Amino acid sequence: MKLLKEKIMSEGLVLNDAILKVDSFLNHQIDPELMMEIGKEFHRRFSGCGITKIFTIESSGIACALPAGLCMHVPVVFARKQKSALMSSEAYSTKVYSFTKKITSDVTVLKKFLPAGEKILIIDDFLANGEAALGLANIVQQAGSEVVGIGIVIEKSFQPGGRQRLIDAGFRVESLARVQAFKDGKVIFAE
Known about the structure:
Elements: H1 2-11, E1 13-14, E2 20-21, H2 32-45, E3 53-57, H3 60-72, E4 76-79, E5 91-98, E6 103-110, E7 119-127, H4 131-142, E8 146-156, H5 162-168, E9 173-183, E10 186-189
Parallel strand pairs: 3-4, 3-7, 7-8, 8-9
Antiparallel strand pairs: 1-2, 5-6, 9-10
């Protein structure tokens, strides 16, 4: 996605050989026009899949998933990283390791928001090692629903495991920007 790559090049900050900081437009401050274009692109790529719901993880995934849900006319559900006092015990749960935060979280979603038989598109802001996407897919499978695809805004293709783990698990993966490497403080995109 050309617009996203241009934004990454102009505003993204390469902090080291593994971290790309995009907090000026994606996961702290949000560029709503860019998010709408991201939603349109996910809609285009997954058109015809019969998607009935979009599933993401709080908090950065929400900004990417919401415009896709708007374009596809389907609800967006997000898994919580911390269980709310208002959440009943009727929830699906799994553990997800965060590459950036270096912690494992119990992520949960109420069962009433993921009934059986749904066709789910998982959307997330980053793909590093695939943990978040695999965790969300695990919850979808617990619910008796189908993952029809995984949409990623920025994929760090150079990190071992991520994309391949998802493909090996049988999932279709669509990434809007695939980063091949960070070199001299710059982002090199995969073709």
